[in-house]
Amino acid sequence: MKNILSVCAFLLVFGTLPLWGQSQDPLNEDQTTVRILEGDNSDPSIVRYGKSYYLVHSSFIYTPGLVVYQSDDLINWTPCSTVLSTFTGDIWAPDIVVHNKRFYIYFPTRDEKGKKTNMVTWADTPEGPWSAPVDLKIGGIDPEHVVGEDGKRYLLLSSGALYPLSDDGCSITGEPVRIYKEWEIPEEWDIEGVSMEGLNVKKVGEYYYLFAAEGGTAGPPTSHMVVQARSKNIMGPWENAPFNPLLRTESRNEKWWSKGHGSIVDTEDGRLFMIFHAYENGFQTLGRQTLLRELVQKEDGWLHLKEGVISLPAPERLKVSGIEDFVWQTCREHSLNDRFRITPDKISIDAKGNTPKEGSPLLARTSAHKYEVEACFELKGENTSAGLVAYYDENYHFGFGFNHKQLLRYRRGQVSRTESKSPQANQCGKMWLRLRNDANVLSAWYSADGKKWHKYPWGFEISGVHHNTVYGFLFVRPGIFAGGDGQVEVTDFVLRNLD
């Protein structure tokens, strides 16, 4: 016994036995997992219609809201419509479905006064036009459209409450029935909270399979997870999988943290895949990214994560992106068209406010660890300013700009000023700017001609700007700010992926 204890002590000291919360052999997630979209695209919901797939995510405080993406291969996605052209409130986990050849998106929202409700919008094609949102007049979050074995329509919310829907899917017709209670998480696990949410129901063979997110969407790396249950009847009883959870980050050493919120889709040839979200280890500033894992149904009848290499390739990522390559959004603006006019060659912006806190910037997306944003700015007003920003929300943003007199630094609603080494460029109101994000370290340059560059005397480190520290469920996005009065014209915009 003494010899056994001595060996164990030796192994613990020299790190060959795994410690609690650490993985002895971290998963090779580059082989099993595919990241399919750039930037934060959290709370994914997917549906297949014929040979095509359609995907939506939470749009939170961004306008336009609810971007619909289309793909023919589950890997390469392009936007096909934006559902909400005006600001409808803070929008969380939506659900996209097809019923009787009509597309529906159910989504929860909270207005600026804090009122919460669930809404639905519909369209005859995913390209739209989409109907005006219909208020279903029920609380709760993360609605999931379900069709029972009797063909009746229901709406399942994160609490496990199932509401009957009208035949047209646009109104609640009765009281809810709670059909599922959360799977009990082991007490010793490090989680953010129980937080059952993101329920997804998929019929495979004779069973309905229910997938629920638990553990909290952020917090410890091991928090979020996907659990599985099954039933032959939508009303239950539901049997939990004996090996739950189906998906979870088990160690802080893994590449993807807080994996959860699974949405299941089948292919025409019978394969099954789960779309979900997660934070990238060391890059929480990029928000929750959309990932893909393959599933298999084994002899026990349960769905399991496929072992080994996934049968789909990773998508190619653009190394250089221009104006036309983005779905541009802004923060809490009533409509993107109110202040922004976007063509493939030029962006014109009506100036607003004196800082990015007061005047919502125009925002792009990227999931690159290292990137540069560059553009030519021309001020069309005596009291106009402009710049490039890394923007989380009104309170957390960082950037570099100029006006007719000086260089500007933007930081959390404040503006600092210093003299320019190209004063004539300032005076004429035309300057090239370049912002670099090097793994959460920001720096910038300015130029009078786009050839000879001077470095700004400031820099930032922003690795702490993410949901765990500043809340909001958002991510740091590159953007364009125009302040003061008048207009700003932006040309030669380019985002370079330096990874």
Automatic annotation (TrEMBL):
Coiled coil: none annotated. This is Xylan 1,4-beta-xylosidase. It comes from Phocaeicola sartorii. Residues 354-486 form the Beta-xylosidase C-terminal Concanavalin A-like domain. The active site is at 43 (proton acceptor), 197 (proton donor). It holds the Pfam family GH43_C2. The record marks 142 as: Important for catalytic activity, responsible for pKa modulation of the active site Glu and correct orientation of both the proton donor and substrate. Keywords: Glycosidase, Hydrolase, Signal. It comes from the Bacteria. Belongs to the glycosyl hydrolase 43 family. Residues 1-21 form the signal peptide. GO terms for molecular function: hydrolase activity, hydrolyzing O-glycosyl compounds. GO terms for biological process: carbohydrate metabolic process.
